[in-house]
Design brief:
The chain contains 2 helices and 6 strands; from the N terminus they run E-E-H-H-E-E-E-E. It is α+β, with helices and mostly antiparallel strands. The protein has one domain: Thiol Ester Dehydrase, Chain A (Roll), CATH 3.10.129.10. The chain has a 6-stranded antiparallel beta sheet, covered by helices on one side. The longest helix has 16 residues. This is 3-hydroxyacyl-[acyl-carrier-protein] dehydratase. InterPro entries: ApeI-like (IPR054545), HotDog_dom_sf (IPR029069). GO terms for molecular function: lyase activity.
């Protein structure tokens, strides 16, 4: 789990089917020592974990990624230059017990990641 260590949530609005939050990245986290020294970049797997944890908090259950129909990393996140990131996540229950999810990580006009997929 990355929340509370790698990032902290500074604002959150949670309605049925949608979560909007702003998170603050911890630029001193050890992950950035290896990814990459003197040029920190948030790893794509961490962006996916942020989406997973946001969904889990919204639906109050553990989930696993089942299918990623779209996963685009459009811009790098340097936690020193861009310590705050806005996350928008919409979710809809599926008949098989899964969750159809659309998510973006961005700040103002810069989109870092777009995701569409299914968790169960």
């Amino acid at each position: 789990m990355l929340k509370g260590n790698f990032y902290n949530i500074t604002t959150i609005a949670n309605e049925e089917g949608q979560v909007n939050l702003t998170l603050e990245l911890n630029a001193a986290h050890p992950i950035f020592g290896g990814h990459f020294p003197e040029q920190p970049v948030v790893p794509g797997v961490c962006m996916m974990q942020i989406i997973t944890e946001t969904l889990q908090d919204a639906v109050q259950q553990k989930v696993l990624l089942q299918k990623a129909g779209l996963m685009k990393f459009l811009n790098m996140i340097d936690p020193v230059q861009q310590p705050q990131v806005d996350v928008t996540l919409t979710y809809k229950a599926e008949e098989n017990g899964g969750w159809k999810v659309n998510a973006t990580l961005k700040k103002e006009a810069t989109t870092f990641m777009k995701f569409q997929g299914v968790f169960k």
